[in-house]
Amino acid sequence: MNAPDPDNSRWPFIRDVLVFQLKLVLGNVLNFALVPVTIVAAVYDLVSGKPGVRQGDSFYRALEAGREIEERINIYGSVGGYHATGASDDPDAVRRSRTIGGVDIGDATVDDLIRKVEGLIVRETGKDGHAAQLKSTLERLLDELRNRRR
Q: Among 82, 78, 88, 135, which residue's Cα sits nearest to residue 116?
C-alpha cells in the first residue's frame, strides 16, 4: 500500500489547524461574553420576580443562546464522528433554530462561513494572481523546512 503523498495532505491539515484555532478563539470570546450576560440576567431575574414567569427565565434564555452559538461554532468538527462537519445541504442534518436571542441568523454555522471563504480562496489560487503566488511561496517554504529536517 502506498503512503499518502505529504504534499497532498499538507493543505487539508493546515486548514484543519487554522480552523480549529479560529473556532477556539470564537468559543473563548463566547465564554468571555457569557460571564457578564448571565450574571446580569440572573440578577435581573432575582430582582424582577414577575408573577407567572419561571424563575430565572432570562438566565436560561441566555444559556440557551450560548448553547446554540456553541453548537454553530462546532469546535471539534475536524475530528469526525458525532460532531463532524457536514455539508449544509445534508438532508439528514438537524436544522438549527433560526434565531438566537431574537436575532434571525438562519441556519448559518461557522463551518458554512469557512466553506464560503475556502471556495473564494480556491478560486483565487487557481488564477495567476497574488493568492497563487502566495501559495507557491508557502509551498516552497514548507518544502525547504521539511528538507532541512531530513
A: 88
Reported as a single tens digit per residue, the pLDDT across 40-97 is 999 999 998 777 778 899 999 999 999 999 998 988 887 764 445 444 444 444 444 5
Give me the sign of the Cα torsion angle 136, 138, 144, 147. negative
User: Residue 54 in contact with residue 2, Cβ under 8 Å?
Assistant: no
Q: What is the DSSP string of 18-52?
A: HHHHHHHHHHHHHHHHHHHHHHHHHHHHHHH--TT
Whole-model pTM: value is: 0.65
Amino acid at 127: K
Beta bridge partners, 103, equal 100
Instruction: Quote the CA–CA distance of 113 and 63 in Å, as a whole number.
Output: 24
